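Appendix C reproduces, verbatim, an entry submitted by the partner laboratory led by Prof. M.T., so that reviewers can inspect both the input and the predicted structure.
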Amino acid sequence: MSLKTIVSIVGARPQFIKSAPVSRVLSAHFRTLLIHTGQHYDYGMSDIFFDEMQIHPPDFNLGVGGGLHGEQTGRMLIELEKVLAEVMPHYVLVYGDTNSTLAGALASAKAGIPLAHVEAGLRSYNRTMPEEINRVLTDHISTLLFCPTDTAVENLTKEGIVNGVYRVGDVMYDALLHNLAIARARSQVLDRLSLKKGEYALATVHRAANTDNAERMRLILDGLSALTMQIVFPVHPRTRKMIQEWGLAANSNVFFIEPQGYFDILMLQENADCILTDSGGMQKEAYLLGVRCITLREETEWVETVASGWNYLAGVDRQAIRTAFETWHPQGERPLPYGDGQAAEQICEILSNELR
């Protein structure tokens, strides 16, 4: 009997991390194919993750590249329809909340192919964020919805989505558990950057709500510049482009570096005094690593990190950022709402039952 075919569609660096543990498990039971839309395309944002995490190279690379949201999503949809018509998989998997997620979901639904959404049910309830639109639309056309938390399941129930919903845990927790020991053994990033544990903070900014708004980016850089500690800031290519276009700058305590590989980022996170970010994935990794996180947004989809007291929503207010950094230090235990690190195995079992 020939193996059933499952296609995973990815395009951005968080999705490479999320797909790795799932693909490792699925490949033992199914014919697995990987489609890379090319949303992230340079080495530091894409290829390094395939190299480091030993992910099989994409079977299809659409090379879509950047562009406005509608333009980028439209080009992805055109190319994905061609590939799915050629491959005709039994299931399509999409991950997270990027334009690649939405394009993959739409292409799958229009082709009549069952769709599974990994990291379903997350809500920030801020419809001005493109990521929120991508999440909601993808969830409403998915056949299977793999939720990382009980809160995600509750969010779907509120929207009338109850069939095909499974609370499996968080695949990024799977990835963290698998890769943390490897990162500790291999990464030399602290030596390379002359950093010592607890003597620097890590900052990242990539959300369009921040990067595409000159005033918000100015406020973020002002907030980082006001901190009395060295800030290591791996700069997303789009973030760098907008900072340069607007002529923005930061004080000398903010150390701009190129995007880093997953192992180096894990080590920068684990050894930081504080993480300042607008990344959902990094908020969650900070929590799992026991590092305090100041979120440069007014809301988050990872509400458990805030409720437990380990994530502080500062927005882009300069004083709020500085006050939180200088006076706020989480205390107490960190509950583990993200499963047991076996989300990929649960996803595989559910898909096996569906396709049996």
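The chain has a mean pLDDT of 93. Additional entries are available on request from the coordinating office.
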